[in-house]
Amino acid sequence: MKKIILFLFIVTSLFSFNAIDIQIKILSKIAHEVVKKDVVKIYTDKRDFYKKKLSSTDIKFVSSIDKADIVFVSNRYELLKCSHKPYILTTSYQLYKLNPDVLGVFFWQKGRPNIIIRKKVSKEKRLSFSSDFQKFLE
After folding, report:
1. Buried-most residue among 18, 61, 77, 111 (CB within 10 A)?
2. Across the beta sheet with 112-117, what order do the strands follow?
3. What is the spatial distance between Cα 4 and Cα 65, in angstroms, rounded to a whole number?
4. Average pLDDT, integer, range 109-134
């Protein structure tokens, strides 16, 4: 996964992508690792993502939690609304620490992306991760 992230940063600097493009690519990698579908429907409370024109067709941002395969939220209110979904990740480390049922977190720290996946929750949901994601299990 570190190679993938490094590759994304190099490509970004060469072609002047912005941070939202990088975030979308990382969310896509995480979503496909968890959901294992050709086209993953993602719900997020980050409205900037819905405005982006996606170059790939392997993800779709949906505006309804009920239509989503996986959820990425950043505040407690949104987390409560999606508690019935099996795959909930957060973009806030504090929210991740406060809620033991959240599968994982994707956040930025010191300008670098960080991913943490709870091993206990992934086992409860019978998820298996590729070798690229094994280092993010905690």
Report:
1. 61
2. 59-61, 40-44, 70-73, 88-90, 104-109, 112-117
3. 28
4. 91
